[in-house]
Design a protein that fits this description.
The protein is 85% helix and 0% strand. By secondary structure, the protein is mainly α. The relative contact order is 0.13.
Length: 87
């Protein structure tokens, strides 16, 4: 453990930030899985609804800097193509 006060603070803040980032990334993965599951089940309506939610979650993660904007755009694009193909 660090001895300097500022180093202790950096450890605490980085742990807090890492936990928040992990939670948001997990939420993105869950949202994507729900879309994929709806596509596998051949449920176009559920897939479309899940896609809208996933798009929102991905865009929020990108706006907070947790996902790079191009990564977010790629994920949304691929999900949109999969949903459209499933219809």
């Amino acid at each position: 453990m660090a001895n300097i006060k500022s180093a202790k603070k950096r450890i605490l803040t980085s742990q807090k930030r890492a936990a928040r980032n992990k939670a948001i990334k997990s939420g993105v993965k869950t949202a994507v899985k729900k879309v994929r599951a709806a596509i596998e089940a051949n449920d176009a309506a559920a897939a479309a609804a899940a896609f809208e939610n996933a798009k929102s979650v991905i865009d929020k993660a990108a706006s907070k800097g947790i996902l790079h904007k191009n990564t977010a755009a790629r994920k949304v694009s691929r999900l949109a193509a999969a949903v459209k193909k499933a219809e």
